[in-house]
Amino acid sequence: MTNALEIRDLHKTYKNGVQALCGISLDVKQGDFFALLGPNGAGKSTAIGIITSLVNKTSGTVKIYGYDLDGELEKAKSYIGLVPQEFNFNQFEPIIEIVVNQAGFYGINRKIAYQRAEKYLKQLGLWDKRLTMARELSGGMKRRLMIVRALVHEPRILILDEPTAGVDIEIRRSMWKFLKEINKQGTTIILTTHYLEEAESLCKNIAIINKGVVIENTGMQTLLAKLHVETFILNTEEDLQNKLQGWSDDKGCQVKKIDDSTFEVEISREYSLNDLFSELDKRNINISSFRSKSNRLEELFVRLVEEGTL
Amino acid sequence: MNLNQQFTAFKTIVTKEILRFARIWVQTVVPPVITTGLYFVIFGQLIGSQLSDIAGYSYMDYIVPGIILMSIINNAYANVVASFYMSKFSHFIEEMLVSPMPNYLILVGYVIGGVARGLTVGLVVAFISTFFTEINIHSYFVLFSVVILTAVLFSLGGFINAIYANSFDDISIIPTFVLIPLTYLGGIFYSIDMLPAFWQNVSLVNPILYMVNAMRYGMLGVSDIDLTIAFSIIILFVVVLFSFCLYLLNTGKGIRS
Questions:
Q1: What is the ipTM of this complex?
Q2: With an 8 Å Cβ cutoff, are B5 and A86 in contact?
């Protein structure tokens, strides 16, 4: 089966000499929910800009469903829907016009465009606001408007560049639900985000870019399995006193007291949670709450980007 | 995109452009009406009544074609330069750039928007002129051709200006320092026969002179310039500017990094 997106040896050097991409290669399968992660300035938005033809590449090839951007640009473009990072619609137009005009740019007649606009505006809770000027919408509504606009021509690949930035948790979760649904219906989704919890819960495959180079490209579960240690924060009902003394050992468990009733346990993959609970039992420590110190993907991300290794 | 889809995309841009200037008609249509109304009163009536006829026409009749064309030039240019620069500045040009719409269609769409505003204002100014004199039409074909070609030409000019502009100042520099002087020196208010030989020759390098004279021929049947030369020059400019605009769009100048 043809890949939804195929990037080979993509380079981009800007006029000011900044090398944003240093030969990245990526494959995104049809129907995938793909996370493209990286710190600020890593090259994610440049890569997306090239895929959507908003940025001219220096060299390399990009194919969308087998259509090369160099030779079959129009065909390739018709497969993509883009939700950019910055608001890029006319703030002085009513939202229904923004959506219907976007469909028009793809050659979709006005009658069908209105039907689709109604469908997606209703799904994303914006139908009541259809006659409102875009500038009067809240930040979350503006983000949803950009999703509707990107979907109105029913693309086979939807690219979302930080779609939930600045959006409250309730709307973010409803957007996740919506994106999962359209992915289930067959739309390939490529997502960049700084909320790693978002990537972990939504995406099947992941690529991490740093300084214009792909430093990791694998399945989400495969990547998470590479994490050797996990840290938990535990709260007790009573004063810990000396109950933690002599616990840290070389079998893969490190314990650190935070305050009189809170401590941190870092355990390796070899050290099971059952081992942890029996040790707590043995030491007569009653736990009132228990949580992971950080998101697992966040832990991996930091190690890969800052230390270059897992 | 097949032809049907291209036509839909084209209609979308044109409708969007016409609605844009229609929505803000107080800023786009009213000011030129007031300015040209003042020209008719001051130059046509107050000063013109003291002057002798030119080429067999009263001064008021003589300046009407040029004033109508001047309003078409200014408004066609202003529409495209403002609209395209705003779409670039606010990034909503990306709505078109990510779509499969061919570049020539984007260009033609914006140009037709400029022509529509130029013609709208031109018609309103022509209507205002009927309060001061009778409108003469010597050749509908010449009049219609010169009006359309001139509006197209200055819409293309506005497009180039918008592509190169990096700030709002940049979109007013060309109209202020190039367009207005060329228009005023383009024979709207006088015949070049009234100038000394040297300045007559200097005037011949001003492309607006050819348009004003072709327009005057279409309305009054008199011109300082041979009509074939005038149309050849206008068409040559249209072809060159259109090709240049398309080249700029294809290379992404000013709109793609």
A1: 0.87
A2: no
